[in-house]
Amino acid sequence: MVLADTYEKAQQYILEMPKFTKKNSLDDTRLFLEILGSPEKDKKIIHVAGTNGKGSVCAYLCSVLTKAGYRTGMFTSPHLVEMRERFRIGKTLITEERFLQGFLMVMGRLEEMREKSGKTEYHPTFFELLFLMGMVIFREEKVEYIVLETGLGGRLDATNAVQTPVLTAITSISYDHMEYLGNTIEEIAGEKAGILKQGIPVIFCDKRKEASEIIQKRAQGLGNKAIGVKPEEYFYNKLTNKSIDFFMHSLYYGYIRLKLATAALYQAENAALAIRCIEQLPDCRGMRGEQIQEALEETFWEGRMEEILPGVFVDGAHNEDGIRAFVRSVEADGCRGRRYLLFSAVGDKDYEGMIDVLKGSRLFTEAVAVGIHDIRGIRPKSLAGYFDGMDCSFAADVIEALYDLLSRKREEDFIYIAGSLYLVGEVKAWFRRKSDD
Predict the structure, then answer these.
(1) Which domain-ending residue is among 298, 328, 358?
(2) Which residues, in sequence order, are bridge partners of residue 227?
(3) pTM (predicted TM-score)
(4) Measured in whole angstroms, how far is the alpha carbon of residue 377 from the centre of its chain?
(5) Domain holding 118: CATH number?
(6) DSSP state of 95
(7) Total domain count for the chain?
(8) Does the pLDDT of residue 264 top 70, yes or no?
(9) How far apart are CA 323 and CA 270, in angstroms?
(10) What DSSP string describes 181-212?
(11) Containing domain of residue 235, as a range?
(12) Residue 214 shares a structural domain with residue 363
């Protein structure tokens, strides 16, 4: 039986999978990789975990490696609008044909997997299937490097089936997914540090002492080099609502001036982490500083202080630390008018903590709590109740709410949309349809 003969049918099959699948063991995923011919074995893999900034670090790494002349595959999650966003070759999404091919290659070996594992009901989960697809797709694309982002945590994540990365990286650690990862920073950091492999260097964001100590202890136990990136290692030179100019001391280039085409201040931290990773790769030692500068400036990562219309920004911040970083970027936006906020959150997030940060910032003239279609979101009316002491209304539909704000927006006003990557995805899907009309 042919499961799918088009990209759309393959995507639909995957979307319906959570109804009948459960998480499998790493041993299962490793066995499936073997059945698929161990597509990851001859690739140079950089494995990236963390709470905030994983996708951005991956994007900067992929951009620099591509600039260095290496064919690079990048696997990230979640997607904002369509599944192909999870698989990139350099800056380019894979084709629909390649997606379908990857899907069929994995699903075509499912019965063999069931037979060899002795588990007649085995089926990869949504994320496991996409990860397996990514590995065979990158093999077919003949990439040299794979930049691999974990889905959730690290220790038990499907991507941790990869056993021989050339480098591991851990971005900033904060409270998120506590029902799976633990209730303390130490517990969460321990789960993230589960991606460390013996003798493989780890580059990590060194700004939270309790997380750093866990990562360093784990690295020491494995005999790994552990390099922390502290906030004082880079400093801002010039900020606008279009770009960030900052300096950083490089091991090979001395102090280098870098420019990022984004208004998201937190991206300097992520770019600095990516540079420290690049410094550990022998393949990149011959790069000129100018090449790294160009690669970083050319990097675009969607949904991070992204201006989709003049004065309208979307940001994927979805936990308290992420919202704090978002607020710092808003503070530096140079807005001469009013700021409006469209906000939503998924039910398992700390939306009260996020809202407290937003209220405390006193940056927004008005907030609108909105719903997210087909997602386990909080009812807009309930969300609005947490914005006490602030002008806040609610609306079931984010696009209708956005149109209302656009009708009142003056040229000097800014509109921000934040609180959930699903919310950002919904707005970007609308914007794409609008642009295509």
Answers:
(1) 298
(2) 203
(3) 0.95
(4) 20
(5) 3.40.1190.10
(6) P
(7) 2
(8) yes
(9) 16
(10) H-SSHHHHHHHHGGG--TT--EEEE---HHHH
(11) 7-298
(12) no
The burial class, CB within 10 Å (0-12 / 13-18 / 19+), for 208 is middle
In a domain, 365, yes or no: yes
Distance CA 105, CA 137 (A): 9
CB atoms within 10 A of CB 421: 23
Task: Give me the pLDDT at residue 19, please.
Answer: 57
DSSP string computed for 124-150: --HHHHHHHHHHHHHHHTT-SEEEEE-
Domain boundary among 248, 264, 298: 298
Are residues 341 and 232 part of one domain? no
Summarize pLDDT for 158-206 with one digit per residue, the tens. 999 999 999 999 999 998 887 878 889 999 999 999 999 999 999 999 9
Residues 6+ apart with CB under 8 A from 169: 46, 47, 48, 49, 50, 57, 61, 202, 203, 204, 273, 277
Taking residue 435's Cβ as centre, other Cβ atoms within 10 Å add up to 8
- Whether the ω angle into residue 78 lies within 30 degrees of 0, i.e. cis, is yes
How far is residue 37's CA from residue 154's CA, in Å, rounded to a whole number? Answer: 24
* pLDDT for residue 437 is more than 70: no
CA dihedral 125, 127, 128, 133 (to 10 degrees): 120
Number of other CB atoms surrounding residue 354 within 10 Å: 27
